[in-house]
Structures are given as C-alpha cells and as structure tokens.
Batch of 2 targets.
Target 1
Amino acid sequence: KAGVTQTPRYLIKTRGQQVTLSCSPISGHRSVSWYQQTPGQGLQFLFEYFSETQRNKGNFPGRFSGRQFSNSRSEMNVSTLELGDSALYLCASSVRTGVNEQFFGPGTRLTVL
Amino acid sequence: QKEVEQDPGPLSVPEGAIVSLNCTYSNSAFQYFMWYRQYSRKGPELLMYTYSSGNKEDGRFTAQVDKSSKYISLFIRDSQPSDSATYLCAMSVAAGNKLTFGGGTRVLVKP
C-alpha cells in the first residue's frame, strides 16, 4: 500500500507570497493532519481534516488554512509568507478521526527568502 | 516552559548497547503516549503507542509510562547503526490527532 505523499517536496518563496501544499493520504484513510516542524519549536499541530471538515485546530494565525476534498486529499495554504514560516510541513493520515495511529508523509520543505 | 520536554542529545552509544530515552510533561490530562522515529529528510514513523500508565514491549523496543511522575521512557535493546535517528515522544489528551510533541532526541549508534 502506498504511503502518504506530499507535493512538492521542496519550495522556495519570497516574503509576502502565498503557497499551497498538497497531501494525498494512504488509500482508505479519511483523516489528514498537518504539522509544522522547525528547529526551534519542533513539531507543532496545525489542523486536522476529516470528511472535508476541520475537526481540530492548533495555535497558528489565520494565514494558515487548509481544506480537504471528497477523495480525502488535502491542501494547506499559507498567505502573506513571513521568514518565520520556513519549515518542514508534514502531513499525517489516519483511518478516521479520533485515532492516534498516524502515518506521516516525507514533508514539504518550505524556504521563505 | 514547553508542555513536553525532551533532551535534544545527541546520545551516542556503541552498537549492541541499550538506548534509553525519556520525556517529561506537565499536562496531567495526557492519556495517550507515542514514540516516533525520524530519519534525516523523512517524516516521523510511529514506533510505539501506549495508553495510560504501564509498560509495552515490541521486539527490541520497550515503552514505559509513569503518569504519577509525568515521565515516559523508551528503551531500545541491542541497538544497531540503523537505529541512528531522532526519536520524538508525542502525547494527547484524547484519542485523536492533536498530538503534542517533544523536541526530539538525536541518537547515534556507533558500529
């Protein structure tokens, strides 16, 4: 069974731009969560989507948003990029919401210049 | 102070030794505890998952949870160079996807 896939793997943007990252969960998995990983703050939860609805949200500004499609694929968007948004963005999928076994993708490394 | 504290290491051990990792936390509401392994340039991989206090063993890995001390541990027996990675603890209040992670401990197993 294929794992979680994330595209693109690497991205370079400049301050003020916006970016959209994509995540395809494991086949049959309907919950997708997004995390930001930085050297200073570690792994931090952004949000979770299940059945096209946001179920949980972390403590990030409104510039960070996401959505989920009917095929469970998810996208996250960051608007008005700041230098501090440079990070590895990880997507994790699970069979359903309310389950702790999550499977992570390889991440998208975003660099903001 | 972070909710979950983890020594960043690096922790260097000879091949075959026992690797001992731990995390402390401040939120007594945490009920679910996990350990992830992350290789360089890869996403975290779930190693162990335990609920509430107690021990759990899976092959060379043993996870321990002591909720009274707010302390969790992971032991890796007969360590191999392929165990060299960053190990992250994670925990949640309820069964669900909002995990709180420790900062990770980098482990180096030398042949």
Target 2
Amino acid sequence: EDKVVQSPLSLVVHEGDTVTLNCSYEVTNFRSLLWYKQEKKAPTFLFMLTSSGIEKKSGRLSSILDKKELFSILNITATQTGDSAVYLCAVEEYNNNDMRFGAGTRLTVKP
Amino acid sequence: KAGVTQTPRYLIKTRGQQVTLSCSPISGHRSVSWYQQTPGQGLQFLFEYFSETQRNKGNFPGRFSGRQFSNSRSEMNVSTLELGDSALYLCASSLGVLTGNNQPQHFGDGTRLSIL
C-alpha cells in the first residue's frame, strides 16, 4: 500500500538550533512532494519538489528531494519560537488528484 | 486575493444528524479537495472536484458526499453522523489544470465538527 512516513514524530529544540525533518514515501506514480506548515488552523504551503537534487530555499527553510532513495528533508536553520508547528509532508501521483499525507512532525522551539 | 474560506468554523451535532460544510476556493481555482484531519489518523483525503465533477474519491463510506457548483464553490455533506466523525474538515483549492498540473493546494482554516 502506498505510504508517506515522516520522522521524527516530535522534536523539541532551543532557539538558534538547526533541525532536519524527514519524509520517506512509497507511491506508484510519483509526481511531486509537498511540505506544509500547520500551526493552529490551515496548513500553509512551504515547498513543492518534483526533481531530485534541486534545493528549494525560502529564508531559513530549505528542502531537497531524492527520487532514487524516495525521501525528502526539510531543514530549518536558526530556529525561532515562531517555527513551532506541525510540519506535514504530502505526495502527489500522476493520474490521481489527491495528496497522501504523512502523520507530521511536531516541532517545538523553546526560547 | 482572498484565501480559501470555509464555513462554519465550528459545529456541534449529535449522532444520527446530518451536516453540510461549505468551501469557497481562491478566485480562479477550479479544483477543490476535502480532507478529514483527526489526531489518530492525520490528514485523510475525502474527495476532489473539478468543474462540478468528482474526479477522485478516498476510502470513506457513502455517508460522506460532496458537490461543486458552477462558481467552483463546494459543499460536503455527512449523513447519519457517528461519534468517529468528530474531526477538523479541511478544504483545499488549486488551479487544477489537467495538463501540467503542478500547482500546490492551498488550505482553508477548516470546520471543526464535534459529535456528541
């Protein structure tokens, strides 16, 4: 059965630390992998990755995809308390119009 | 540009009742997807609509249904509510163009449904 697995499930760090969140997947016809940040309400879009080895960057956040090993990482440098959230990974397939989500990683950044 | 709007924000119902949730997508977005989010199961796909047609459906019972109107607004209906239907129901929209469909979905704040 297709699946998306995120690790760790939860993580507690202090401000200024760097964190790496992982997402591995097994789907039949991979099209793209997406990262979302969910605080209290709507997941907000972070990155969409379709090609291996091309890093996407937005401020202190970056992400990269390895289509051979079937995983992606999300890096956050110099973490701030505002980075505290659940980070969700989702995978889209060709000929399909849904997204399969992982369980999420709950990141807590302490001052 | 307004984001995805879901109404109502909160709902409390009892077992056996039915409920209708509404979602207005971002202007210009034609695809609307619905998800159920619970602490135990995470985010699970319900169904996706494009141009008033259901294109894809997740593994939920027939009590869960939806529709999309010509202005791309969508409604989701759950009949004969059960305690296990308590969840956050999220709607997401995207351009949904069939070819070269590489646009991310954008989520609304959700409707929190509690079944007593």
